[in-house]
């Protein structure tokens, strides 16, 4: 079956998604689980192993995960500039795109916003508050149905922050860092925070967290429950559901 035939029969882009991973301990978590459960094939591209980034024409969707490096560390990590170009072209092509933490910072920079270092790090289980636009958003918003309240439980783990790209929609904030989420176009989302965290992924993170930071089980359970529903919405939106 040719790819055009596959699309005509299923209504789903037959090209695989790509998930870009920057360090071994920051894997896809719930993102991979939701994609697989929804019937989407995906491939892992691990920059720390030297994997080349794909061409936008090869993609059904793009996810860029977090990592400890900065957007401005291109001298040490030359792939950062190539990744920004891929994020920009994928967003312009109307593909489903999800940037998480560093991925969101990369996406913001790729779309013309500044990325800067804040006064202090924001780390641990917490929440973000949806803006008025966020409350109406098809992926994040309770007004679209299925989620309760205006706060989204999440895990924070960042020090850098970003401005809002031109023509993007501001979706979520915290008091410390007001730019926590944005949407560019219809299907490209940048999330400064983590909603993909499973218990297994949290176990991998614990040795890398600063002293005194504890990811409590109850808080992680809320993050996983809400995160799974939000990510399912994102995948459904990407598929045109």
Characterize the overall form.
globular
Kindly identify the CATH topology: Rossmann fold
Q: Cα distance, first to last residue? A: 24 Å
Radius of gyration: 17 Å
CATH class: Alpha Beta
Low-confidence stretches: 1-10
Task: Name the helicity range.
Answer: 25-40%
Label the structural class: alpha/beta
Number of helical segments? 7
What number of domains? 1
Describe this structure in words.
It is a single chain. The chain has 241 residues and is an alpha/beta fold. The chain has a single domain (3-238), classed as Rossmann fold (3-Layer(aba) Sandwich). It is built from seven helices and nine strands, in the order H-E-H-E-E-H-E-H-E-H-E-E-E-E-H-H. The chain has helices at 3-10, 30-37, 79-92, 102-110, 132-136, 199-205, 217-238; strands at residues 17-21, 42-46, 61-64, 97-100, 115-130, 151-162, 169-173, 181-184, 188-191. Strand 7 and strand 8 (181-184) form a beta hairpin. It is globular, with a radius of gyration of 17 Å.
Q: What is the fold's blueprint, element by element?
A:
Layout: H1 3-10, E1 17-21, H2 30-37, E2 42-46, E3 61-64, H3 79-92, E4 97-100, H4 102-110, E5 115-130, H5 132-136, E6 151-162, E7 169-173, E8 181-184, E9 188-191, H6 199-205, H7 217-238
Parallel strand pairs: 1-2, 1-3, 3-4, 4-9
Antiparallel strand pairs: 5-6, 5-7, 7-8, 8-9
